[in-house]
Amino acid sequence: MSTQQTEIKFAYWVPNVSGGLVVSKIEQRTSWDIDYNVKLAQLAEQNGFDYALSQIRFTAGYGAEFQHEPVAFSHALLAATTKLKVIAAILPGPWNPVVAAKQLATIDQLTKGRIAINVVSGWFKGEFTAIGEPWLEHDERYRRSEEFIRALKGIWTTDNFSFHGDFYRFHDYTLKPKPYNQNPHPEIFQGGSSRAARDMASRVSDWYFTNGNTVEGIKAQIDDIRAKAASNHHKVKIGVNAFIIARDTEEEAKAVLQEIIDKADPEAVNAFGDAVKHAGKASPEGDGNWAKSTFEDLVQYNDGFKTNLIGTPQQVAERIVALKAIGVDLVLSAFLHFHEEVVYFGERVLPLVRELEKQQEAKAA
Ligand SMILES: Cc1cc2nc3c(=O)[nH]c(=O)nc-3n(C[C@H](O)[C@H](O)[C@H](O)COP(=O)(O)O)c2cc1C
């Protein structure tokens, strides 16, 4: 008996901060303003994208001089679309779980179950200092994030919720209304790939988001997380970041990548490189996001070139299906010119992905 395979899903980064998704002075026909973003969300849902991911930044970093707040911004995108799910990034510390639970439950009601959350744990010490937020050491940030997620789930699903953690406490609290989505609750994504991040994913997150990487690098993470999750009787899905450059010819695509790197803003990239030393590198094992990133990798601020979705539609589609084969459930994409390239992706790449998936399915049957 053949089982129906699940199609790989696609998300895009919401450019709700200025400067696009590469730290480069190359021309980017991408804007962080609301009109541009509403149109982008509409184009994305018409072109096969399932999710949009908004970003949380309180101050400039890697450029990103202007930043819209992601929960409010995500709601505006949801109000302008009908199918797209929007994942709002939230940083424990500035947000506490009761505010997040209430805000997101309301948005979930208003949008009939289309909000999700990306719990991020912090890598930018300068930002925390600027907003007067205590800076916890690496693994403590994840301990707090895990409590945040446990509290959020508890509030969303349980009446008379009580919780006694080191960071958060609740006493007999009942949220009304609960989220629209009770199946079981709005999806919880997380960013981060250190040991602490992976362990958190293997216990509490619905989705694990990681920076771009090679197929081998991604596979090693997936195998590790899935083995741990299985021993915890937990299931976690995997999303991988990629900066997609799909062009009619491979030469064209590679030339765009080269131009992005040649026109990189060295000051901003190096400042970013310094700031991210507080991420993976600061973990006890010294590994995780950005721990091994080169200058060129950092030009895309989540290592998106490394995933190598750069080439013709056929090459990009084949590499996406290869990611699916190692257990990736979702590709989180960024583009140079979002409007134009989301449409190109939907028209030229996605049909090839679906075709290759069918072939893979037929082979497996
Ligand atoms: C896909 C993705 C999205 C992220 N979005 C944000 C964000 O919007 N704001 C933020 O401060 N950190 C964001 N992060 C950073 C992570 O939450 C985490 O702090 C960082 O990856 C360091 O992880 P590590 O130390 O566990 O390796 C994101 C990470 C990933 C992989």
From TrEMBL:
Keyword match Transcription: no
InterPro entries: DMSO2_SphG, Luciferase-like_dom, Luciferase-like_sf, SsuD_RutA_monooxygenase
SUPFAM superfamilies cross-referenced by the UniProt entry: Bacterial luciferase-like
GO molecular function: alkanesulfonate monooxygenase activity
Any GO BP annotation: alkanesulfonate catabolic process
UniProt KW keywords: Flavoprotein, FMN, Monooxygenase, Oxidoreductase
TM segment ranges: none
Residues covered by the Luciferase-like domain: 9-329
Keyword Flavoprotein: yes
Protein name: Dimethylsulfone monooxygenase
